[in-house]
Design goal:
Length: 52
């Protein structure tokens, strides 16, 4: 991944926060969903798929 380092920095700061919400939107639920799941595993919090 190209942005693994930035996700790790955000994960460290988010762990000190009280609430985390990960929302993603994807036309096909492919790569975007995978990245959102990886962020959730790193940061924790609630995972939500936005649909139209």
């Amino acid at each position: 991944m190209l942005f693994t380092g930035s996700v790790n920095l955000q994960a460290q700061s988010a762990k000190t926060s009280k609430k985390v919400l990960i929302v993603y939107y994807s036309l096909r639920n492919g790569n975007t969903r995978i990245v959102a799941e990886q962020i959730q595993k790193s940061v924790g919090g609630v995972f939500f798929a936005s649909k139209l």
